[in-house]
Amino acid sequence: MKNILVSVAGFMAGDAQADRVVPPTGFTAWLTLFSAGAMAFLAVFALALSLATDRLADRWGTELARSSTLRISAPAEQMAAQTEAALSVLATTPGIASARALSDDEQRTLLEPWFGPDLPIESLPVPRLIEIIEGGDGIDAAGLRLRLAAEVPGAVLDDHTRWRKPLVRAAARLRTLGWVSLLLIAGATAAMITLAANAALSATTQVISVLRLVGARDDYIAQAFVRRFTLRGLMGAGVGTVAGVLAVLMLPSTDVAGGFLTGLGFQGWHWLWPAMIPPLAAGVAFVATRAAALRTLRDMS
Amino acid sequence: MIELENVAYSYGGGELLSDISLQLQPGSFHFLTGPSGSGKTTLLKLFYGALIPTAGHVRLFDTDVRAMDRDDIAEMRRRIGVVHQDCQFLNHLTVADNIALPLTVSGRDTLNEVSNLRELTGWVGLKSRADALPPELSGGERQRAALARAVIMSPDVILADEPTGNVDWEMSQRLLRLLIELNRMGKTIMIATHDLALIRAAKAHVQARVLRISNRRLQLAGADL
Known about the structure:
The complex is a heterodimer. By secondary structure, chain A is α+β, with helices and mostly antiparallel strands. Chain A contains eleven helices and four strands, in the order αααβαβαβαβααααα. The radius of gyration of chain B is 17 Å and the shape is globular. At the A-B interface, α2, α8 and α9 of A face α2 and α4 of B.
């Protein structure tokens, strides 16, 4: 491990004389930098998407699975009695950790996004909601429905599975798409750097044949090219990653909307993930250029 | 040091050289002559491992070229200096850097060799052109820079392919004198040329053997030419 670190450090520090041997290439250098940067920028978003949908699937999968809602629709004069009855049924049902009727204020807040503020909720036949948090092995929904039908005719139990399942499936699919995008971005980066390196190599066949003639080893020649493209990949990806992270930071906060999208950002130690992009891009550039250089060299005497 | 044993070389079309056996002794001076297209350049390329014979054996410093990998060939080129008729340089580096290129690529510290480099540049008469770029040089200056680059590693053998092809008579005399001087220092010299006047001029100063390629074979030309 230590040896690897030493050789990586040596590679980065480079050999000033060896670097000068390869002629400077102004225009393609900028193209390589730009493409590496653009790819890194996209990679940040693909990464953010994957991680956010991962969190979303997690939340929908576990948090919501532990809760359900009881809705009581009854004439206004019976509402309080039926809510009481329902709560007492729930209190004696096994597998329920807590059950609580939402207050008028809470129900108004829930409806506000759709009906606007200051809804006169008291004068409307709005059903009462009871939030149930499950515990232990969870509830037997069918059994509970039977008991409720007998004792609280106006109660409807919603255990969320109906709409939760497709959401979890969609989130999982989005997450897969995110990872596939990352792979595609890595592949496209490799392809583009290979093309740039091939172009640079074929523009410098004279340089390579001179170097071979005066006794340069393949490794020496390859290294001069490989180092240049690896550093460009690293630098371009660094700039692109920083820009991408800034863009993610500047996304509007979604907490106001109830955190439904959980924010397309990074949370906690996930902020470390984007930091992996520049070294990975450099690694891709290293492997791609080295393969291209050695392939070109093998064809020369 | 360079040894050929029943060597043949054929390009796709047919055999260019056949049944060539030769041993280059240390300190010898050879001319290689023959009509254009007779295979002088091909034979020189066999001498420095740029081509592999299609039959027979080429041994460079007692190693068969077929047994050498690309790195071995790179190492071997540090012991054989090559000058081409149309010598190529790294056009973005100065003449001095180009002459020092063999030192650079072999990982030698060029700073330790500064005096050596300066002396060599002066010897080929390019002191005032040391900071010029290769495209700014005349044909004769290019040849001399190539010669300096070929000898900076102090190789055992120097192969020159038509070194005087692009220069006037006076300059070719000057190059010849440099090569003769190198031979006196103990280097083995092989010059491919079709310029018989150059060979005659050399014979006055050095004991040179003349090899002629004719009919795909190598013959030792008579002392009288």
